[in-house]
Amino acid sequence: MARPLAVAAFNAAARCQVMINKMTGRFAPVPANDPYAAGNPAINTEPLFLNWLREKYREVMVGTNRSAIFALVNEKFLETDTPDSYRKTNQTTSTSRCQMLMPYLIYLINCLLI
Predict the structure, then answer these.
(1) Which of 54, 52, 27 is nearest to 42 (CA)?
(2) Cβ neighbours for 71, distance < 8 A, ≥ 6 positions apart
(3) Cβ proximity of 41 and 68 under 8 Å
(4) pLDDT digit string, tens, across residues 64-84
(5) Can you give the residue ranges of every domain in the chain?
(6) Which of 27, 32, 53 has its CA nearest to residue 44?
């Protein structure tokens, strides 16, 4: 495994702590123990940290994409809607969802064309 922090003075715990301190946004704060691993071990080595990060990424990103797809599929034009009211309520959310889903749609179209 390549170690970007392969400095002789860093031991495994120090490298892990540096990576934990770099986490921001949706992935911060890093918990002391890994809730995704059996036995809830302390996150104090690189493999444990990377396993936690992989599971957290799946939880955050896959969940977000699924909810966006679900909302897009279930979007409806009601009889009480006028074109203006529909545009106001759905245009901005639809645009952001479509921009997020565009890479997946391009991938699927390419698969169909091959």
Answers:
(1) 52
(2) 93, 97
(3) no
(4) 677 667 766 666 666 777 777
(5) 10-74, 78-114
(6) 32
In angstroms, rounded to a whole number, what is the distance separating the alpha carbons of residues 52 and 25? Answer: 15
- Of 29, 72, 68, 75, which Cα lies nearest the Cα of 52? 29
Q: How many C-beta atoms surround the C-beta of residue 12 within 10 A?
A: 14
Say which residue the tokens 């809607």 belong to. Answer: 81
Q: Are 30 and 36 in contact (CB under 8 A)?
A: no
Phi, psi of 100 (to 5 degrees): -70, -35
pTM of the model: 0.51
